[in-house]
Specification:
single chain; 187 residues; mainly alpha; elongated
Length: 187
Amino acid sequence: AEKKLIEKGPGYAQWAKRHNLKQVSKSFLFLRDQKIRGLSHLSSLVEEKTKARDELLVSIKTSEARLAEIATLKKHIINYSKTRSTYEEYRKAGYSKKFFEAHREEITLHKAAKQAFDELGVKKIPKVKDLNEEYAELLSSKKTAYAEYRKLRDEAQELLIAQSNIGSIYDFSDGKFRRQEEKEQKR
């Protein structure tokens, strides 16, 4: 950072100093407006907001995974029901190679659907209507959670910026806060 200050010249150094002071002033005003009474209170709020934000993100990702699973399951249920009669005829024909060649695509789709049910642990095939209802509920709750996530993300970001700006003024060591300037003067 010091190398950049030297390269850019004294004008840049003055601008950077003024900019940093403005950012710290904004942080103090933010803390005042939010009625944050100290660094420990700020730290606990940062921890609380980031934890809530991260939990919501996990919830959203879980919902997205289930939504994808439902979409796949619906596709396989539809394929299974469309090809069921053909597969039953194939079974009745004694798994004839000739019948298989004539209906390869349908039989392959049917087998793929059965395999997908086994992989998903589906014992009883659910109704598409029930899956559509679950999908709609999950989508709605995901949208709500995502709106809350964005709000918490922004709040956490503001708190983290304030914490960083305030932390740049103070140096915490040996359980006491010392001004950065005092520390630099002792050098």
